[in-house]
TrEMBL record:
UniProt cross-references to CDD domains, sorted A to Z: NAT_SF
Region (Disordered): 160-181
Membrane-spanning parts: none
Coiled-coil parts of chain: none
Keywords: Acyltransferase, Transferase
PROSITE patterns in the record: GNAT (PS51186)
PANTHER family attached to this UniProt entry: AMINOALKYLPHOSPHONATE N-ACETYLTRANSFERASE-RELATED, AMINOALKYLPHOSPHONATE N-ACETYLTRANSFERASE-RELATED-RELATED
InterPro entries referenced in this protein's UniProt entry, alphabetically: Acyl_CoA_acyltransferase, Bact_Acetyltransf, GNAT_dom
Taxonomy, superkingdom: Bacteria
MF annotations from Gene Ontology: acyltransferase activity, transferring groups other than amino-acyl groups
Organism encoding this protein: Streptomyces xinghaiensis
Protein name in UniProt: GNAT family N-acetyltransferase
Location of the N-acetyltransferase domain: 1-153
A Pfam family of this chain: Acetyltransf_1
Length: 181
């Protein structure tokens, strides 16, 4: 699917309403649907058996920029599960597939930005191994913004769970083991 698919637009409208309820305004991040096209990104929609769209998520390649990204970053965007489908593990499953896709595309680190008014998102990301990182992106100067990162490529000789994992990319080492905005 693409970010401009009708089901994606429908779910995006719902998440924008939720952002407005929680923060007072919708997400102002500009996103071109082509940014999520493979191999430089991926956008997914999860459906229930009757074809109702339940969840979305995507990643787009980001590299060094004045906004604070690093070369090799994959930025997680539009993670959203409709309220009536929450608690089923959809976000966690989408996140796993997105991380695997970004890793296979050679991205070294998954980064995301969320907000303090989304404690359930922060809990999901931290439980999946994401750690706080320096702020980046459109909301990097906002006090309610929180940025997280998780290494996707672990250098040779560094255990997967080590704090040093993903801090550098060793040449030749292959891929290893709701975001507010």
């Amino acid at each position: 699917m693409r970010l401009d698919h009708p089901d994606a637009r429908k779910l995006n409208d719902r998440v924008q309403l939720e952002y407005t309820e929680r923060y007072g305004d919708p997400d102002l991040t500009e996103m071109d649907p082509a940014q999520f096209d493979p191999p430089a990104g991926l956008y997914l929609i999860a459906y229930d058996p009757d074809g109702t769209p339940l969840a979305t998520g995507g990643w787009r390649a980001q590299d060094h920029s004045p906004e604070g990204y690093r070369d090799g970053d994959a930025e997680l965007k539009r993670m959203y599960v409709v309220p009536e489908a929450r608690g089923r593990g959809l976000a966690r499953r989408l996140l796993t597939v997105l991380e695997e896709s970004a890793r296979e595309a050679g991205r070294a680190r998954m980064v995301l930005e969320t907000g303090t008014k989304q404690p359930e998102a922060i809990a999901l990301y931290t439980s999946c191994g994401y750690l706080p990182t320096a702020k980046f992106g459109y909301y990097r100067c906002e006090p309610n913004s929180r940025c997280f990162a998780k290494p996707l490529i672990v250098p040779a000789g560094v255990p997967d769970g080590s704090p040093a994992a993903g801090l550098r990319h060793t040449a030749g080492a292959g891929p290893a083991a709701s975001e507010r905005r």
